[in-house]
Amino acid sequence: MNAPQLAKIDHPASWTARSLTEQSAKWAYQLSPEDVAELDQGLQQVKSLGLVVPNFGTKEFPMPKLAAKLASFKEGLCTGIGLLYIKGLPISRYTKDQASAIFWGIGSHIGIPWPQNVRGHLLGDIRDEGRTLDDPMARGYQTTADLDMHTDGADIVALLCLKQAPQGGENQLCSALSAFNKLVDTDPAAAQHLLDTPWCIDWRGEEPPGKPPYHKAPLLTRVGDVITCFDLIPYVHSAQRFEEVPRLTERDRSALAAFEKAIWDDELVVRLRQEPGDMVFINNHYHVHARSTFKDLEDPAEKRHLRRLWLETDAWAAQRPVAMSTFLHAARSFWEKPGSSVQMWDHM
Question: What is the pTM of this model?
Fold first, then answer.
């Protein structure tokens, strides 16, 4: 039987590596001295109020001029091209916590932070914790390993680079919409199978109390005129360790492999190396991202260190796919733990 006809997605987020680079004015923003001065004012204000992350928001960190400049970028991030890259924060002027407070302040103007894990962290640390991907309970951000293309568990994932590794640690980014379009051309049956199939996804030890150690969701979902993506293919494979999870069929494996091939197509992959002070905001509904392996310095204070936000946006409140809604429910109901929502390394 012939595979059903699928339409390609025509959307600002269905870019190629070349077209995204050509449109950098829509997603790349360089902070001006005036912007930095306003951020410093916001930092001083929260300090004067005796507030630290996560106990302040847009009211305490207003940045009115910068917020106005970023308004069109925010709209593009949430419903358009799906990316915002901010450069120019003079990171050497700040402690890690001061830079993180500025990052939190900017992020609060983009969306509402979610807890990111069972530990309840609202501002997560991305650094090597000495773990490996051989450990089925480990998360990729706790290792130095290559991380395959994936999505995070919120509308927007944001990363601030505090320290970069001397070797490796490059970010890769691909439009899942463009990868879907490529599948429509090359393997429409795989594209349809990814849309139709609820996959078992490993919780990696972070399941809500009383729930199975995995949850079910499609990797691709049609939302209006677009396709949204929830790509945790390594967690689909690791869920096979549970006896009650149905075994992946040859058709399943073929569809997953076809999608992985599409999202690593050279014409679609953009490579970004965050330097200290750089902030990147990525729409998880539209895009997948990865990271190359890295080699750290020996000095603990100089090791690669990023901080991460998961942000909820109003733009997706009425149309959030089931996979992302599952994470939001876990975050709000089971992961929020006052007192463990941020790990501070120094003092503001």
Answer: 0.92
